[in-house]
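User: Quick sanity check before I run a bigger batch. Here is a single chain. Can you write out its predicted 3D structure?
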Amino acid sequence: MTRQRYLRIALVTLPPTAIAVVGLAHPAGLTPASADRWVDVHVALLPLLPLLGLAPWLVLRHVVRRPVAWLAAALGYVFAFCYTSLDVLAGIGAGTLQQRNNGVGREFMFARGNEIAEFGGYAYLLAAVIAAIVMVTRARFRLLPAVLLVVGGAWSFMDSHVYYPRGFLTLLALAVGWGLLAYAVNESKPSPSVENDPVAPGEK
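Assistant: Done. Predicted structure follows.
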């Protein structure tokens, strides 16, 4: 494989894998006993969760014309800032209120964070669906297992978050699905404006 393909695969697989690993430490609920760990986990997730939004753009930028690829990038950006808001409000904010104020006000943090995150979750799902449609149609359905993992994972992530076990499995599904799609992109052909099929039938 080319160096660019290795890098692309790493960029779409490592973030969900790292998030899945950090998520193993995520408490099942926010209590006085778990508040410290709750805050620590969400601080650790701050630089990782937004990186999930890169995958649709990284896959599509060498496959379709610029407007479609940039639409996927914009949707990924919406996901990134919405889930950062969730981390700050329902993670760090609610956890800190539990630590310092006996949890008074934390429900408001949860409610506001979840409202924003829902919008971001739908943006990520739409980006995944766009990538799935493009890749399946151009690869004549041989990438169907990969797009099912990506779309199913994006759908599941909206309410599984990083909670074990469902969130853990969801993130691994996203890592495998995006990795397979990234591997399938044939970077030897020109990118944003090509008409040719840029999905490689296999590595030569």
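Residues 151 and 175 are 12 Å apart (CA to CA).

User: Great, the batch can go ahead then.
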